[in-house]
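Late entry, evening session. Most of the bench is empty. Finally got around to the prediction I had been postponing all week. Sequence below, unchanged from the version circulated by S.P.
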Amino acid sequence: MKEIAAELGYHPATISKWLKAAGPPASRTVNPGERVVDARWAARIDELIAPPSKLLATSVSEIVWSWCTER
């Protein structure tokens, strides 16, 4: 379990759970109209996190929040 988990980048307990359930859960699908981040926002966020960016997720969140509250 530990070797598989290390190779895949998951916790060993997750791998164990998936093996007992005959595999990982199905991917979640979201209707494009219900997405919180649309293509325009995704592009802006991609620009923020593009290498050589060293921004932490909290910084990205704060920047995006400031964009949302601009008037």
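Two things to note before I forget:
The mean pLDDT is 90.
The chain has four helices and no strands.
Will write this up properly tomorrow.
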